[in-house]
Amino acid sequence: MGAEENRIDIENKQAWKGVGGGKIQSLEEWLGILSAFKRSCGRCETNCYIPLPQMEEYIHEGRLRYEIIPGRALWLFEQERDYYLGYYYVPKEEKLCIRPQNLDVVVYLIGSEKKYAAKREEELAGLGFIRYRRNLEYMVASEKIPELEKMDRKCRRFMEKMNFCYTPFRIEDYEEVFKMWRERIDRYSVKDMLKSRIRRAEEKAECLLIRDKEGHITAACAFEVNGAAGFSENIATAISCSGTGTGGALLCRSLMNIFSRGCTKDSMWVWEGNMESRRMTERFAELTGRFSQQMLLSKQADIERGFRV
Description:
This protein has helices at 3-13, 27-41, 52-60, 118-126, 145-162, 174-184, 195-203, 246-259, 275-281, 299-305; strands at 20-23, 44-46, 64-69, 73-79, 83-91, 104-112, 130-141, 165-168, 207-211, 217-226, 229-237, 265-271, 286-297. Strands 1, 2, 3, 4, 5, 6, 7, 8, 9, 10, 11, 12 and 13 form a 13-stranded mixed β-sheet that branches. It contains ten helices and 13 strands.
């Protein structure tokens, strides 16, 4: 069977297996499902912008499933350890709808004050979602390097006094680091890294740790470099180090690491309600005007509510 025939077979025989869906077995299957849905419904809106190579890895790890509500919505669910990230495709003139799920569902709506899916936020609220967290995007420019270097010198003296040291991330550190991120940031705001991302964090030193004199991890920050742009995420300190300046020291060293790789800017998301983190970030970064609204639908609410349209 040729590639074109295989694509058509996927679209015709797999895309519409009745109401519902299932685990996605291949990228070709998903593209066939999406193509069939768009052909039947016309122009769609979505909150899904997962790059295809990354999507293929999620499929390989068995973390993607879909659900179709014919003519109304196509949902893509990416499974975290105990909840789903939900991505919708919905015809422009249709209202969102969702069926009960067996895990909590988190949906991100990203935009700015000028361009934002406020209509979809209201529809999700009507379906039982709560407005969980609102995160603000910050940007740091490489022009801040002199200030970062000055702060880093101060931080090094602080680290020596505290008997703390910066150490590279190792794959075997991941579970301890992930647990700290979940406890200190938020269980619904920390994504479980793909296996390839964990390996890359070690190989390319894209995760920085701080350890105490006993070797315990007291802070961790991950980042990615894509050309001239960096992206920092999951900056957190152990509760025993709260308020000691460890988080600021880690952010400063992490940013210097990013800019040393040829980046001209770095972006990060900070919870709007975390004033301590915002004050720390605003020493170097500026708001971009973009935000992400997390919407949360609990499994219990699904059970009590049933199918809503």
